[in-house]
Amino acid sequence: MDDARLAALLEDAVSDVEPAHRIGEIRERVQPSRQRWWYAGGGLVAAAATVAAVGLVVGGPPERGVDPVGTPTPSATPDEDVRAELPTLYWIGTTPQGPRLFGEQTFVNAGYGESQLHAVLRSLVVGTPEDPDYRSPWTAARLLSARETDDGIVVTIDLGLDGSAPYLGIEQVVYTVWDLLDERAPVTVDVRTEGPRRPVTVTSRDDLSVLSLVQVDSPAEGQEVSGSFTVNGMASSYEATVPWRLEDASGRVVRDGFATAEGWMGALYPWETEVDVSGLAPGTYTFVASTSDPSGGTEGPGPTTDTRTVVVR
Fold first, then answer.
1. Which of 33, 55, 108, 185, CA to CA, is 20 to 30 A from 69?
2. Around Cβ 237, how many Cβ atoms within 10 Å?
3. DSSP 8-state symbol, 189
4. Which ranges in the chain belong to alpha helices (H)?
C-alpha cells in the first residue's frame, strides 16, 4: 500500500475529532504493574492479598499455559469470574455493515516493569484473537512505544497492515486504550512507514459506525459449561431484543430464546441471558446472538451476529 493511500485511510479515522478530554488520572492507571499473577493447578493464584485491576501476568519466563507474547493457551483460559477482570482487546470481524470491531476479554502476559498499557497494546499488535471469527489487520508489526503525555496517550507502531481494513487498525488501538482506561482520553497513533508520517489523534468516535451491533462478552471462546451458563454482551438491536440460539455440531438448533438489552437507540447496551444445557449430550456447541430483524431479511442488510463456541461437559 502506498503512503498516499494510507494517509487517506488514516484521515477517515479522525473525521469527527472533538476537544481533548481530561488526562489527569491517566498516569496512575498506566504505570508499570507490580502484581504477579500465574496459573497453577488450573487455578489463578495471586502473589499478594490484593489483585490488579486487569489480568496481567508479570515476570520473567512464561509460566505454565502462558504464551510469551501475551496470548493465552487453552490450558490458561481463565474462569468466568477471573475473566471479568481481564482487559478487552478489540479485533475485526465480518458484519452485514462491513468489517467492524468486536471486543474480546484477553489474558495478557506482561514483562517485569512493563506498564499495563504497553503490555495490552503489545498483545494487540503482535497477538491473535482467541475467537477464530476475528482477525487483526496488523501483520509483521511491532509496538515501539505506548506512553502517556499531558495531552493523552501516544502509541507508536512500526507498520504492518494487511491492507484489508487499515483504518480499523487505528480503531483497534483506540478502543482498546479507552476500555483499559475506562475513559475516552485522546489517543494518538503514530504508524511508522517509509516516507512522510502522519500521526492520527482520536478523541471521540461514533460507536455505531465502528463496533459490531451485537457482541458476546462472556463466555469465553471454547469455555466448558454444564447445567446452565450465563451469556452477556452488548447490543444495539430493534426494540432492545437480542435473539439467540444454541446449535450442535451439525448446525441443528437445540436451544433458543431472546435477551432484552437495557436500551436500543443511539448506543450499544448491556444484555444478559441464561442458557440451560442440562440434558444435552456432551460435546461442542455454538451460541449465536444476533440483532433483531423484524423484516425477516426483506429490508436492510440483515441481522448482525456474534458467536461463541462452548463445550458441554
1. 185
2. 26
3. E
4. 3-12, 26-29, 80-83, 116-126, 166-181, 207-210
Of the segments 38-47, 119-128, 291-300, which one has the largest average pLDDT value? 119-128
Q: How far is residue 223 from each of residues 39, 41, 159, 261, 298, measured CA to CA in Å? A: 17, 17, 34, 23, 35
127 near 119, Cβ under 8 Å? no
The CATH number that domain 213-312 falls under is 2.60.40.10
Q: Which residue has the cell 495471586?
A: 46
- For the chain, the structural domain boundaries read 3-209, 213-312
The Cα–Cα gap between 99 and 93 comes to 6
Are the C-beta atoms of residues 231 and 193 closer than 8 Å to each other?
A: no
213 DSSP 8-state letter: S
CA distance 230 to 182: 24
C-alpha cell at 23: 488526562
Which of 57-66, 72-81, 184-193 shows the highest mean pLDDT?
A: 184-193
Q: What is the rounded CA–CA span in Å between residue 165 and residue 17?
A: 20
